[in-house]
Write a structure and sequence with these properties.
273 residues; 35% helix; globular
Length: 273
Amino acid sequence: MMAETHKFADLGRPRRIWAIGSVHAQLDRLHAIHEAVWSRFQAGDRLVYLGNLVGWGAPGLETIDALLAFRRALLSIRGMFPTDIVYLRGSQEEMWQKLLQLQFAPNPREVLDWMMRQGVETTLAAYGGSAEQGFAAARGGAVSLGRWTAGLRATMQARPGHATLFNAVRRAAYTGTPDAPQPGGVLFVNAGIDPSRPFGHQGDSFWWAGGAFARLDQPYGGFHRVVRGYDPARQGVQVTDVTATLDAGCGFGGPLVCGAFTHTGDVLEMFQA
């Protein structure tokens, strides 16, 4: 656990934590949620985006620009610190990073085909690429693929702040102490968690173990509540004694959800746009 602490965000003990569900590049909904958060936000609060910032929606570049602009606005508030704003890694961010390393995959065409069916195609198009180009590069071998992904990376890096944001995503964010003897605090994840694994050994379960999340019926580890922003089964917003799902189908025709939590995981309010 100690060797991986940089992969997680310790939120401390703030009065309120604002958590925004999977955006999926739904720019208008994101703007509306930002306006609602701005009207309520106070210095000392925290803001956590629960992953899947891009994917499925077309305006991927504008979505990242909006995230960066809102971060700058919040940091203009006296008493705010950069660590008060956290972006979690979702499956879309994971796939994008893997796509930029596609030349190292043993079966790049199969991997690319699978990613396209999982929603990364719109992000690829936003940065000037296409599936057809990728498949053509794959047929040319690793060197050809390397040139193609290098071009995508250069396009991303030319957009101020984009590469920095993608490199800054965390696996999870929490309050309290992980694996504490007594339940307390709140854990924020993208899509899921494997109840059979300790916190520091979840690996990619945070964005792929959506089904396992539904099995949580008692506090996990040292946390009072686990909050996620994406439900692959798309069963809507749900709050139980030990979990909360902030997914009303944003990116699939539904609204974007934001919830406010105390540092112990109690729900203060919830709204959507």
